[in-house]
Amino acid sequence: MRNGYAYCQIIYEKGDAVDFIHEEVNKGYEQLTGLKNVVGRKITEVLPGILESNPEFLEKHFRVVETGIPDQFEIYLEALKKWFDISVYSPKKGYFVAMFDDISERKRQEIELKKMCEKLTAAKEHAEECGRLKTAFLANISHEIRTPMNGILGFSELLKDPYLSGEEHAEYVDLIYQSGQRMQAIINDLIDITRIEAGEAKLQIAETPVNRLFHFLHGFFKPEIDKKGLYLNCTTALPDEDSILLTDGLKLNQILTNLIQNALKFTDKGGIDFGYTRKDGTLQFYVIDSGIGIPDNMKEKIFERFRRVDNPLNRRHEGAGLGLHISRGYVEMLGGTIWVESIEGKGSKFFFTLPCNLPVSSVKQSHPPIIQDIVDAVPGVTILIAEDETMSSFLLKKILKGEHITILSAVNGQEAVVLVDRHPEINLVLIDIQMPVMDGFEATSLIKKIRPELPVIVQTAVSTKETIKKAAQAGCDGFITKPINMNKLLEMMQELLNR
Ligand code: ADP
After folding, report:
1. Sign of CA dihedral 314, 317, 321, 324
2. Given a cut of 80, is residue 24 above it in pLDDT?
3. What is the mean pLDDT of the chain?
4. Where are the beta strands (DSSP E) in 227-319?
5. Any idea what the Cα angle at residue 97 is, between residues 96 and 101, rounded to 5°?
């Protein structure tokens, strides 16, 4: 429906259209434009500046008048802050009739729709990118898990051969162990990523002897470096006794291990320099290699999860694309930044900073506990292991193997409670959470009712906040996650037995 019309005469100056004058308008025109008493007045009078800000406005009317061909167009008049749909025809030379409609609302909706479409397109592209990453991730993860799985299953099968030489036997066991470690590394990476992204990763700030960590890493990587015929240089900026940093040592170790592992993976000639320097209140750590380098367009992206430079289906190197994402997460949690400088074909330099928190006191020199310490602390110690999985219980017994340690076993929570009741000589209980008949939570609270002073360490593969809270509510004295870190377990046992 056309709401307004105007009948106008074009005004010429030296043959050019310069303005038009209103001859006749209807009420709709006045309502739509908000202009009153326009008849006999030029458009430049009633809407000053209109021709300058909309040159095509006059031009389009003029063309209809000159050619006699009707036209229809949409135009935005800034002065009125409105969109109009205008149909123009010329009934006689020099004159035109313009019928127009206010389409501002439709235009507003169109603009919003366009914005929404743009957002949807961006979301679609993001989803597609996520989809591509997911595919790459699954391709990587399935490779990363299948390869060590193959190693473990394949070599376990070979171990059954009774005619194996001692050397072969040792080699297969070593390969099974390495495969297990690789599996554990990928699982740890996945757990770390989940924790970082859920904001659940916790820092354990303590006095960390940085130089000692560097010497350890140098020794740890040296055999692999030698195998590849590379060099490995380690430079520390502070004297050993001053190189104590207040930070999370385990996370620092993990960041450096990730970077050195990558350097080793992507370097075939030359070698690796790693170390740290002291700069404006921070320690700046570096790992520099002379490897394949990183293309410019990937220098930021490789810190995103699942990002790898090479095509996952065309892989030359192992990796799920998680290490750098985790490293960046940890560096940022520790108050630093991480970045890379690299030239393709020449090598890469990874840097990260940490605040230079040097403690006032010096570190306590303590050695990790050994089984003898426990035996010395409590002569004739008796430990109850409650664990339904034969493999885990076997491993615990091996860790605790000692002449003067007596081990009692239970395969479910109920058995554990009965044994505690019958054996007052038990000094400590190691209990699993997920067990048949009665779980570790219930068993712990019953054990604590029978002997409140008896230390109970809960061990589990699931270390969520919820589990830890439930274990504490049941009254446990220590909590340890599987795979069990032997030193940590012994340390905890020693402390509880000495109480
Ligand atoms: P992963 O190495 O397990 O794939 P990372 O997150 O540690 O995962 O690294 C992501 C990617 O960054 C690697 O796949 C590799 O393409 C690139 N990259 C990392 N470090 C280096 C390096 N020192 N030299 C060359 N490329 C590297």
Report:
1. negative
2. yes
3. 85
4. 231-235, 244-247, 271-279, 282-289
5. 135
State the DSSP H helix or E strand holding residue 228, giving kind and residue range, or none if neither: helix 210-228
Task: Give the model's pLDDT for residue 449.
Answer: 92
- Kindly report the CATH class assigned to 108-198: mainly alpha
Q: Given ligand 1 and candidates 260, 290, 302, 325, which is best to mutate, with the most ligand atoms within 8 Å of its CB? A: 302
What are the two backbone dihedrals, phi and then psi, of residue 458, each rounded to the nearest 5 degrees?
-95, 135
Please report the atom of ligand 1 found closest to the CA of residue 263: 23
**The predicted structure's pLDDT at residue 421:** 92
- Which residue type does 396 have? L
Q: Best of 133, 228, 262 to mutate for ligand 1, by most ligand atoms within 8 A of CB?
A: 262
Burial (CB count <10 Å: 0-12, 13-18, 19+), residue 13: exposed
Does the pLDDT at position 312 exceed 50? no
- State the DSSP H helix or E strand holding residue 406, giving kind and residue range, or none if neither: strand 406-410
**Going by CATH, does the domain composed of 4-102 fall within 3.30.450.20?**
yes
> Given this model, what pLDDT does residue 182 score?
79
CA-to-CA distance for 76 and 49, rounded, in angstroms? 14
pLDDT tens sequence across 166-179: 888 988 898 888 88
pLDDT computed for residue 206 by the predictor: 84
pTM over 0.85: no
What's the 308 CA to ligand 1 centre distance in angstroms?
A: 6
Which of 89-93, 197-201, 337-341 is least confident? 197-201
The architecture (CATH level 2) of 206-355 comes to 2-Layer Sandwich (3.30)
Structure tokens at 421: 């009741």
Q: Report the pLDDT value the prediction gives residue 403, as an integer from 0 to 100.
A: 54
Ligand 1 centroid distance, CA of 29 (Å) = 68
How do the domains of the chain map onto residue ranges? 4-102, 108-198, 206-355, 381-498
Query: Residues near ligand 1 with C-beta < 6 Å?
Result: 258, 262-263, 266, 289, 291-292, 294, 302, 307-310, 319-325, 348
C-alpha 258 to ligand 1 mean position (Å): 9
- How many angstroms separate the alpha carbon of residue 199 from the centre of ligand 1? 24
pLDDT score at 407: 86
Using the atom order of ligand 1, give the atom closest to the CA of residue 289.
Answer: 23
Fold classified for 381-498:
Rossmann fold (3.40.50)
Residue 332 banded pLDDT, cuts 50, 70, 90: very high
Residue entry with tokens 């992206």:
301
More confident residue, 267 or 135: 267
Read off the pLDDT band of 377 (50, 70, 90): low
Using DSSP, state whether 390 is helix, strand or coil.
helix
Give the number of other CB atoms < 10 A from CB of residue 232: 20
Q: Which amino acid is at 83?
A: W
